[in-house]
Amino acid sequence: MAEARIDKWMWAVRIFKTRTIAAEACKKGHVWINSAQAKPSRMVKAGDVVQVRKPPITYSFKVLQPIENRVGAKLVNEYMENVTTPDQYELLEMNKISGFVNRARGTGRPTKKERRSLEEFMMPEFLGDFDSDDEEE
Predict the structure, then answer these.
(1) Which homologous superfamily is 4-97 in?
(2) CA 100 – CA 97 distance, rounded (Å)
(3) Tally of helices (H runs) and strands (E runs) in the chain
(4) φ and ψ at 32, to 5 degrees?
(5) How many whole angstroms separate alpha carbon 73 and alpha carbon 63?
(6) How do the domains of the chain map onto residue ranges?
(7) Distance between CA atoms of residues 133 and 18, nearest Å
(8) What DSSP state is assigned to residue 76?
(9) pLDDT truncated to tens, each residue of the chain (137 aa)?
C-alpha cells in the first residue's frame, strides 16, 4: 500500500504553502491523523482522516491517494476530500463578522468605521424604553 509523509502530503495537496510550515504545524500539535497527534515524519495512507487546526477552526480532510509531489490546484480533489463539518465553517463566518471586537494586539487604534460598528454593537436597542417607565410614576 502506498504511503506518504504527512508534511509532504499536506504541502502537495496545498493545505500549507510550504513544506516547512506544514512540518512546523505538526511539531506544534496542530495536525492529527485518525485522532492521534502527528509528527512530520508520520506516514499517511488512503482512507486516513487528517485534521488540521488553523485557528479559529479545525479542517478535516480524507486522504484519497497519498502523494509527495505538489500538484496543480485543479487536481487536488483526486488526492483528498474535504470532510470539514459545516459548523466549523459557521464558526469561521462568525469570526469574520465579529472580527472588529477581538482586535489583534498591536494593530493600533480602530478606524472610524470600526469604532462606529463597535459602538453600534455595544449600544442596546431598547434604551428608549426606560424613559417611558419614569413618566408613569
Answers:
(1) RNA-binding S4 domain (3.10.290.10)
(2) 8
(3) 5, 7
(4) -130, 145
(5) 16
(6) 4-97, 109-137
(7) 63
(8) G
(9) 589 999 999 999 999 999 999 999 999 999 999 999 999 999 999 999 999 998 888 999 999 999 999 999 999 999 999 999 988 888 888 777 765 555 667 777 878 888 888 777 776 655 555 555 555 55
Q: Are 22 and 50 in contact (CB under 8 A)?
A: no
Question: C-alpha grid cell for residue 91?
Answer: 464558526
Residue corresponding to grid cell 459602538: 119
The three cell numbers locating residue 98 = 465579529
Q: Which three cell numbers stand for residue 119?
A: 459602538
Residue 65 φ then ψ, to 5°: -155, 125
Query: Is-contact 58 88, C-beta < 8 A?
Result: yes
